[in-house]
Amino acid sequence: MTPFLRILGIETSCDETAASVVVRHADGRGEIISDVVLSQLEEHSAYGGVVPEIAARAHVEALDTLIEEALGKAGVTLKDVDAIAATSGPGLIGGLIVGLMTGKAIAKAAGKPLYAVNHLEGHALTARLTDGLSFPYLMLLVSGGHTQLILVRGVGQYERWGTTIDDALGEAFDKTAKLLGLPYPGGPAVEKAAKTGNPDRFPLPRPMVGEARLDFSFSGLKTAVRQAATAIAPLTDQDIADICASFQKAVSRTLQDRIGRGLQRFTETFPTVEGGPALVVAGGVAANQELRGTLQALCDKHRFRFIAPPLQLCTDNAAMIAWAGLERMAQGMEPDSLDVQPRSRWPLDAEAQTLVGFGKRGAKA
User: Fold this and answer.
1) How many CB atoms lie within 10 A of CB 289?
2) CB burial readout 28-44, b (16+ within 10 A) else e
3) How far apart are CA 249 and CA 294, in angstroms?
4) Where are the alpha helices (H) located in 75-205, listed in sequence order?
């Protein structure tokens, strides 16, 4: 048996350009040899959000250099890697084209197999890289484009148990921040302001709380924030802090209900799981410490392991893309043809009902 497999990963689905070399050892253990990420935050901050054309151009300018840097830090050349893994979707189509075309070119020139990876699958499998987690487990993906509760049964086997029916949670954070005059990205800005705020000042709604279905909704909460801010304008710094704290508390209580019901369903579906049941959180919003605390307490209550990968692996990165490719290689799955095309919408669960946030065309990715 080969002592290890080594893959070069490429990620360009949004506003981070990333390259990484990851190894999977014969015992299944993963090891990140290099992980290089270039953020485009400064390029987009003036616009209050990601501008697709700017993002694509930045990927073109930086990707070759980052790949060279990732290989150099790993102490390898292209001939030393066993395959190339590149994000193929979902995401901004311009960025996806840059990364996938680069991956194709390298695979063709170096004679290496190519794995076109679903960005969401990268998030879904990261806990197996960092914590050696066994299947099955639950994953909460919370980012600017996604809010989904997903059952991870195995590599390529995913069931969407819940999704947002309107705004993603990260989008709600960004829009709340913009409404209050806070800088982009909104998540860290809202969290910082909330630290000095009164979370009980504004009785904001807890969308979907009490419903049996496991979906999420944040549009009404966002509207309630705007109404609260308008009613007391002009806002003082303390007003802004109080609104942020109240907003964050409403989100926390909403997740407590939604995820709590998901944990109960998982326990009923899988009475016994090797190593015990686990909830994995991924995506940029997973960096929020209050939300992490809520999820940790919830998992303690239901006797679940709570796994939050290191912050740099919760946001967009190429190590998770490389690892997803390695997982597919280890399962004996065939590599992709060089004719594979990028997909701006690409659901993990192709059988689930089409809703906003699901990943099919016409839905928000």
Assistant:
1) 9
2) eebebbbbbbbebeeeb
3) 10
4) 93-110, 119-131, 169-179, 186-194
164, β-bridge pairs: 216
Phi-psi region of 217 (alpha: psi -120 to 50; beta: other; left: phi over 0): beta
Distance CA 98, CA 87 (A): 10
Burial class of residue 301, CB neighbours in 10 A (0-12, 13-18, 19+): exposed
pLDDT tens-digit map of 265-295: 999 999 999 889 999 999 888 889 999 999 9
pLDDT tens column, 52-100? 888 899 999 999 999 999 999 999 999 999 999 999 999 999 999 999 9
Question: What one-character-per-residue DSSP string does 43-91 give?
Answer: HHHTTTS--HHHHHHHHHHHHHHHHHHHHHHHT--GGG-SEEEEEEESS
User: Distance between CA atoms of 189 and 196, rounded to whole angstroms?
Assistant: 12
- Distance between CA atoms of residues 95 and 227, nearest Å: 36
| Residue 52: predicted pLDDT | 82
| Residue pair 363/354 in contact by the 8 Å Cβ criterion | yes
* Residue ranges in the chain modelled with pLDDT below 70: 1-2, 46, 354-365
Work out the percent of the chain whose per-residue pLDDT is above 70: 96
